[in-house]
Amino acid sequence: MMLKFYYSQLSINARRVWVTLLEKNLEFEPILMKLNGDQFQPNFLELNPFHHIPVLIDGDFNLFESLAILDYLEAKYPEPSFMPQEAKQIAQVRTIELVTINELPPASIILMKDMLEVEVPDKQIEKAKGTMATVLQYFEANLDGNSSYFIGEQLTYADIVAGTAVDAIPLLGISLEPYPQVTAWLDNLRQRSSWQQTRPTQEQIEASRAVMKAILQKR
């Protein structure tokens, strides 16, 4: 039975799963969520009572939380593998994943609110920019200009998780120019077919502004 994948074009959480599905060459049925209230419909809440995307359905098994989905895909479809086997490298990948999902979203929400003219205290904006700088500097320090990815020449979940998040940072008014290693790494990722297939267009970004603003005003 074909995998079913609930996603949105503008969701970074969904995009990391989407990229993984493409990189693993898996067949799946994409189900686009508009997030205009469809995430609160009873049939979707049965899949995820927390009304978030992404959701992946494999037969009679459904799961949410993007990192859990990546672990599931890695275990069930291990080729190609995006998780190294050496202990130190596993820890590096996990750390980059967790820094990405723990540190970037709160700061991104603040900066997105400001961009969409939702009132935010200046103090929060400055704190968010500081968090962004700390994360980007951490990534900069962990990238080697002689390698294509975080772990040498192997694409891993560190690149997929961090890369899909960093790809959206310039949209928030944060320049990547002070981070040459990050810029080169992201440029390399953007050459991949999976990146090009999943990157939202400017038209999609503009069309989503009203929906995004409505969601952020409730946060």
UniProtKB/TrEMBL annotation:
Stretches assigned to the GST N-terminal domain: 1-81
UniProt key word Transferase: yes
The UniProt record lists the keyword Transferase: yes
Keywords associated with the record: Transferase
MF annotations from Gene Ontology: transferase activity
Entry superkingdom: Bacteria
Domain GST C-terminal residue range list: 86-214
Classification via Gene3D superfamilies: 1.20.1050.10, Glutaredoxin (3.40.30.10)
Matching InterPro entries: Glutathione-S-Trfase_C-like (IPR010987), Glutathione-S-Trfase_C_sf (IPR036282), Glutathione_S-Trfase (IPR040079), Glutathione_S-Trfase_N (IPR004045), GST_C (IPR004046), Thioredoxin-like_sf (IPR036249)
Protein name according to UniProt: Glutathione S-transferase
Organism: Hyella patelloides LEGE 07179
